[in-house]
Amino acid sequence: MQKTTVRETLDRLDRRLGAHLRDRVAGRGRTARALAVAADAMSPLYRLVVLVLILWRPTRVRGVRALVAAVAAALIARRMRDDIARARPGARVEGGLPSRHAASAVAIAGIVAERRRGLRLPMAVITAIGLMGRISTGEHDPADVVTGALLGGVVARIVARLGRSRSPGASPSDAGPPAAHG
Q1: How far apart are CA 97 and CA 181, in angstroms?
Q2: Within a 13 Å sphere around the CA of 92, how many CA atoms are in the beta-carbon half?
Q3: Using H for helix, E for strand and C for coil, what is the string for the chain?
Q4: What are 127-149's pLDDT values in tens digits?
């Protein structure tokens, strides 16, 4: 008898969870359509957010940070995905773990809401709905999205921290708290 590895067991459980979620959503027509629209709209919407932030002078630094975080998260996710080579649940042949969309979206949301507490919950909800749409449409299984989201969160934290420590000309809302002199 062949011994099942922990990775195989987790993979099987994740596939079952993803299939179960897709089955549950498929039975709800409007919900399924809304999640599909959210999944399709998330990437262009977040690109637009980054563009607006970059073009508007008071938020330009934040926009550049969001762009850097999104690109870094996507590149890291792509590299990991190619190395892991875990198939997606749908027909697409490239791997899905971690999700590049999840990594980029969470990185952007993290930077956008970094120092704006009022944006944290709306950004988290919008991102979560879009990522649930990626699962419900069969683009990803839950572990793909969760792993991508964790990666995006880590990248956003790193970019934010580096940005605060290296931005002498940034506005007070984009820079960190003033350094204590002593």
Answers
A1: 46
A2: 15
A3: CCCCCHHHHHHHHHHHHHHHHHHHHHCCHHHHHHHHHHHHHHHHHHHHHHHHHHHCHHHHHHHHHHHHHHHHHHHHHHHHHHHHCCCCCCCCCCCCCCCHHHHHHHHHHHHHCCCCHHHHHHHHHHHHHHHHHHHHCCCCCHHHHHHHHHHHHHHHHHHHHHHHHCCCCCCCCCCCCCCCCC
A4: 999 999 999 999 999 999 999 99
Structural domain boundaries of the chain?
12-165
pLDDT for 52 beyond 70: yes
The rounded distance, in Å, linking the Cα atoms of 38 and 136 is 11
Q: Which residue shows structure tokens 């919407």?
A: 45
Summarised one tens digit per residue, pLDDT across range 87-119 is 999 888 888 899 999 999 999 999 999 888 899
Output the pTM of the full model: 0.86
Residue 66 or residue 167, greater confidence: 66
